[in-house]
Amino acid sequence: MRPDTAAALVAEVATAQGESRVPSVVAGVVRGGELVWTGTRGRFATADGGLPGVEVQYRVGSITKTLTAILVMQCRDDGLLSLNDAVGKHLPGIAFGDRTIRHLLAHSGGMNAEPEGPWWERNPGVTFDELTAAMDDSQAVGPADRRHHYSNLGYGLLGEIVARLRGLPWIELVQTRILNALEMRRTTYFPEAPAAEGFSVHPFSGQLVPEPAYDSGAMAPAGQLWSTIEDLARYASFWIDPVHEILSRDTVEEMAAPVASDPREGLTASYGLGLRLIADDPHLLIGHTGSMPGFLAGLFVDRVRRIGAVTLGNATYGRVASLAPDLLRILTTYEPPLTQEWVPEPNLAQGTDLLGQWYWGNTPLTISVSAGILQLTGGLTTRLSPLEPDLYLGRDGYLAGEKLHVIRTGNTISHLNIATFILTRTPYGD
Description:
alpha+beta
């Protein structure tokens, strides 16, 4: 990394720490699968002046939800559930049982944000039976699918669903199915030294006030975990280059597609399946923010530009979670990503006779190949994956999920048919 880039990143971290009065901040930038820069600011990771560092644990809050979402998608990919399953199918007799798993993942089910009872983040956790005994459909804030309404409670339910389906506690599933595979050895349920202390800052005196850090119990899948910058950098790299042992690239792309929007953010922010999405025109950042009493966190990546940023701090309030996208903007301003190096295309297993000019009525279209994948561009645009000879599947855009049929007369292509659109080699097939 160039010295001027590193200096600008340090300055941004210093501004965030100083202006929003955070006892300590640690940040990192990922590029091409590597942690290429780290920075710290502040002298109070602990009350006695322990310094922040890349090996120091902080509580990551709702970044935990992304791991719970991975466990849900693994169950879906293994055929244990459908995203359209009613929650009541897996948790019989529960309130909000008519909401779907998709609703809970995307916070679009109209559920209340927090469980009934004392504020769960600042009190000892309860069992799942105690959690659900206090639930009531009358607590809904609206019908499903009307709007995005963030619900921590929903992720408590999702954690229980995957635990029942796999027959193991939620944290064991996180450990065995995600953390071990990514070698995230410093991501744990409880803090393990060296670990930061959580603080709030008195608004007038500027003194540090210790915050509690309880076991969240049944709400752990919503925000329990502790981690480090080094571990979160590995996790950020996973979202850029998925490890098939954990999730396929297609499943990650599905999770990163918008499902629900936050009306307060206009068109700039939305939510996928367990992921926050930020439109950074013309790019898309995916990841999550996190907060628990005394802690703030942020993790966002740009999968196309293969960069990411992670931030951790030990304050209840401050510009830490939103700092990660700002660091990415600085990185790309000082060091714009290089255009990917061109290499000759591999030989196609099938589809070479589809390449070239096509027409949809009078509208010219082109089928070409990029990175070994057929690309339909023009008035209709999608990538095409082969399913069988003369049959392809649209991967994105308006034609996502639609099938392209190659219609032949003998060995010669007569026309293409995708979603009833007829493509011919000449205008109107003349």
